[in-house]
Specification:
This protein has helices at 2-11, 14-26, 46-67, 71-88, 90-98, 101-110, 115-126, 133-157. The longest helix has 25 residues, at 133-157. By secondary structure, the chain is mainly alpha-helical. α2 (14-26) packs antiparallel against α8 (133-157) and α4 crosses α5 (90-98).
């Protein structure tokens, strides 16, 4: 069955689309303008930008898992994303692979309640300022903007199932 699935997705172009999507996800950064999440009045230090990038990377994997119907395509997207990070940004890849931030976000999203608020609260904690309202708002904005961007990018792939 797996070989048949791979053949199906390879023949119709899905695997190539998934690889390209994963590579594009690896290149997403909070300050590159593609996500439209930062405002001119945001005062962001390097550690906050780093945490924003970690959140974006986490959301890439999660959105792929939640919005792509075929597990083989989800795996292909995620593998392509991490392979590109390993190749082009090895230090960043090592930090996120060894870090706990993904676990904190995963746990936050398992709770009942407003997901953007839960992520925003966790983002502020990971930035070292659990009570900072502007960081909570930024985390929520990153969540909403990134998820919307990713859902659209996945739809644009027009995967055939």
């Amino acid at each position: 069955g797996i070989a048949k699935d791979i053949g199906f997705h390879k023949e119709n172009g899905n695997l190539l689309k998934a690889q390209r999507l994963g590579a594009a996800m690896a290149d997403l950064k909070p300050d590159d303008g593609s996500l439209g999440i930062l405002r001119p009045d945001d005062d962001l230090t390097s550690p906050i930008l780093y945490q924003a990038r970690v959140l974006i990377t986490f959301l890439c994997g999660r959105c792929a898992r939640e919005n792509i119907k075929a597990p083989i395509l989800t795996d292909t997207v995620r593998t392509a994303m991490y392979d590109r990070l390993k190749e082009n940004e090895h230090g960043y890849y090592t930090n996120i692979a060894d870090g706990a931030a993904f676990s904190f976000y995963r746990l936050a999203l398992k709770k009942d309640g407003d997901k953007k608020k839960l992520v925003g609260d966790e983002f502020a904690k990971l930035c070292g300022s659990a009570n900072d309202k502007s960081l909570k708002e930024l985390g929520s904005r990153i969540y909403v903007g990134t998820v919307a961007y990713l859902i659209n990018a996945i739809k644009e792939c027009n995967f055939k199932y």
